[in-house]
Write the structure tokens for this entry.
Amino acid sequence: MRPPAALDNPAQVSLGSDADDAALPTLIRVLEAFRTLDPDLPIQYALSFLTLAQNEGLSMGELAQRLAIAQSSASRNIAALSDWHSFGKPGLGLVEAREDPRERRRKLVSLTAKGQAFLHRLTALMAGHSLPDAPQPLPPVTVGIDTRTPVAHLG
């Protein structure tokens, strides 16, 4: 079953107020910016990045508490956002965890230069600016439904 045609272009879906209608395309642009980093990036990683951008120097435990997730999940999110990813692929290099000088077992997390640049890109998108040097978002994925053989198409 195919979704309504209005959902083909989420920027054209009306939410009821002018403010809501203006906010939705901005939110979509921000989420698409995260997709340029990794098309399969979980929303939890994006929320972790944004929380750290607002609160640099949080410990992994504090991040877990703010996001209401397990500390192991926060650690996994930070690993994926840093240089090392737990699934055997390179991390995104957006954050770094450093030993807390007052308590060596704690790791304090802050944005890297790449993370700061990505944050600048996000804030520019939220302000309505386009950034020509930024990678273009990935095309939406559509699935062709065929009773014999389902085929996925990009485009």
Summary: The beta strands are 58-59, 95-100, 103-111, 141-144, 151-154.
